[in-house]
Amino acid sequence: MPGPPSRSYSERDMSDDRGRLSAAQQVWDLVLGAACLAVAVAVHLGGSEAVSRNLDPSVSSVLLTVLAVGPLVVRRRYPLTVLVLTLLGLLALIATRNTVGASTLGCTVALYTVVAWGTRRQLRAAVALMAVGVVVGLLMRPVDLSRGGAVATLAIFTGAGVLGAGIRERRERFEADVVAARERAARSAADERLRITRELHDIIGHAMGVMVVQAGVAEQLLSTDLERARTAIAQIGETGRTSLAEMRQVLGALRDGDGETDALPRAPLPSLEDLPALVDQVRAAGIAVTLTVRGDVRPLPQGLDLAAYRIVQEALTNCLRHSGATRATVTVTHGDGVRLEVVDDGAGPSRPPDAGHGLVGMRERVTVYGGRLTAGPAEGGGFRVDACLPTGAAT
Description:
Layout lengths: L22 H25 L11 H11 L9 H17 L8 H14 L2 H21 L6 H75 L4 H32 L17 H10 L3 E7 L7 H22 L3 E8 L2 E8 L13 H11 L3 E6 L5 E8 L5
Parallel strand pairs: 1-2
Antiparallel strand pairs: 2-3, 3-5, 4-5
């Protein structure tokens, strides 16, 4: 019989979960078991016409009735044990030629409980026990069970099993949904860690590239042009502060998720609107960069805007760290999507196009938005990065 709404049980031996039944569940089982026992005893003592044709109720027959129904008070703590006891009590009543009456309530409710809440091993055992019990009971021919009554009793047992199976299927489907949700959450967490790792790589890689070049310039100028050396050193500090602000923003979600808040304000994540400042940084490091924006500039989704900025940032960082370039051009074209082209006059073919994680990170960003990326030697020398991000794929 269905009980009140209760929590979902996972597939394990319910004996390991005894202490987890709530007080309300225990009270419900106690009330249901007591009610079924009261009905069975009342019928046994005089509520059945068959009593007049049977032996007068005795203490032993009442005790057998209690055995056939009473264990229901702990039905969810010991489901299979309760089914065994109620079935034995019922068979004992039949064997002693006593009226069965409403004592079948015990097996009915116990069978439902095992099917609905027991483990698969308990379920298989319950089906086997009931099959054997029904055959044995019919062979002993209960004194108050007609052919129609036998059919009705079998229908009741079958209905209890079907109802329990339906509850079980719904519970297992719910648990499968919970597991799937947890797996999706785990995948989302892994994707978020990958995103943060990629962001930190781009931020730190660019900052270190710019700072190393500026430190080299400052070192060369210390003995010849002190003012320019000071400017280069100041630019190092500015680059470091900007990078720290970006890292604080990237990691802020993790801190907030732990219930913490950052004492310092966090600047918004960069976007294509911040390209002029990025270009100025690279210029200060010694590369003459030209920025050109074409087409009708429209607001972009935040994720795509950030991805476009990072692609340009990584391309310029590669110019600083790998190519030995002195000039670079950045062209941003707005249309059906955003096209980003960065061309430098550096080493070009001498640099492996798939070296390091920078180009891998660019490809990952482009793939997320269904775009394309080409990177390799440019016509006439140098190196060229060409990325297209379709705005229609952004969400």
